[in-house]
Design goal:
This protein is mainly α and 138 residues long. It has one domain (2-130). It has 4 helices and no strands. It has helices at 2-41, 46-69, 75-102, 107-130. Helix 1 (2-41) packs antiparallel against helix 4, helix 2 (46-69) runs antiparallel to helix 3 (75-102) and helix 3 packs antiparallel against helix 4.
């Protein structure tokens, strides 16, 4: 009986991980595509491109994670998501400025760097805090 329970737990964790990655890919893809499109089609500065692409990505991410990945709702999760998103936004903004202004990276490479690093930290922080449910009935 204990083994069956552990297998069920492992299967649930794997399913959660897969759903997180599906949403993450969609959110990351939205950031990347919006960033690339704005970089190619507009005279906007990299920081403005980052801001617009980030907003699109955040809306995609919260909606997907709350309703598809973790299947939760409520102000508790929104507030936690906002806090972590703020931290990640600040970190990715600093990265954008440093790469573009200090090292002279193009818009494409700047957007690519944020696209690669952001999801890694997002998964870690959202898994251990944002959407953590202390009680199975939540």
């Amino acid at each position: 009986m204990a083994i069956a329970h552990q297998l069920k737990g492992a299967a649930n964790t794997l399913l959660l991980f897969l759903r997180f990655n599906i949403v993450g890919i969609l959110a990351t893809g939205s950031y990347f595509l919006v960033g690339l499109a704005l970089g190619a089609l507009t005279p906007l500065q990299p920081l403005i491109i980052h801001l617009i692409a980030f907003i699109v990505s955040v809306v995609t991410s919260y909606t997907g994670h709350a309703y598809f990945t973790f299947k939760v709702s409520g102000p508790r999760y929104m507030l936690r998501f906002a806090v972590i998103t703020g931290v990640l936004f600040a970190a990715s903004t600093v990265l954008t400025v440093i790469l573009n202004k200090e090292f002279g990276f193009s818009e494409v490479w700047t957007v690519t760097a944020v696209t690669v690093t952001y999801p890694i930290f997002s998964f870690i922080l959202h898994s251990i805090w944002t959407f953590k449910q202390s009680d199975p009935s939540e």
